[in-house]
Amino acid sequence: MPMYVVGHKIPDSDSICGAIALTYLKNQIDEPAVAARLGEPSPETAFILDRFGFEAPELKLSYAGEEVYIVDHSELTQAPDDIAEATIVGIVDHHKLGDLTTSTPLECWIRPVGCSNTVIKMMYDFHGVEIPKEIAGIMMCAILSDTVIFKSPTCTTADIRCVEDLAKIAGIEDYQALGLEMFNVKSAVAGTPIRDLVMRDYKDFNMNGNLVGIGQLEVVDLSVFDEIKAELEADIALLKDEGNRHTVMLLLTDIMKEGSELLVISDDVSVVEQAYGKETVNGRVWLDGVLSRKKQVVPPLQDVFS
User: Fold this and answer.
1) What's the pTM?
2) Disulfide check for 305: which of 71, 119, 207, 247 has CB 3.0–4.6 Å away?
3) Where residue 225 sits, what CATH number does that domain have?
């Protein structure tokens, strides 16, 4: 019986492209695997898959009794709802160590880099498996996405070198241009339902018993939100009440200005202000230089809650 390789809920490009890439690797080393997903691909992910000729992995929400290899997280809140009834056989990730636990030993590839696909590239190198052209393409795009085309503080020399290697394999001469094309797809928000935007790249975190939701929308120009910002704020307020969350925040990230406007709905906004050292005005605050939820947003907030 094959293992299922799956990323987190509300999957991003790293999660879905990583599941595809790791599944191919596992099958090449005689460890039968099937790629899966926990939600619908984002417009950016759909663009990447179409660009390199892939269908989205199987949508599978239940994993009871299955073997599962987790990609791009190790958080209970981001895992399948019935993960406790599954056997986790491995984790590949680039985030902080979360609260998933296992009753049996497992394979772990966790590195402080900008993207899980960078770690998966290391796994290919370790096993001596050649990366197909199309898989190299989606891995490269996932790294460009997660590192914000190398602008994110999470980006490392390993990420850059992997992109350079993968671009050669994929036959992409100007990966910077392809990265910008991806972010232009991300920036097309007109006509998209507000809840779909809020949930496009959203994660829940358990912070010392407090449920905190953090979403992020990365665009090349924040003016695309001018006419819908109030609607976004109203929807994150609804999301907070629906899930009995302590706080819900939405990062509106301008990759050209290299900063984010933070929209906040909270039971105690002072916690957020303490975390980032800035006062909010009507639930909004500009955070200069903040591009990474993983490195610049979650850790200081986690520290305050702890």
Assistant:
1) 0.89
2) 207
3) 3.10.310.20
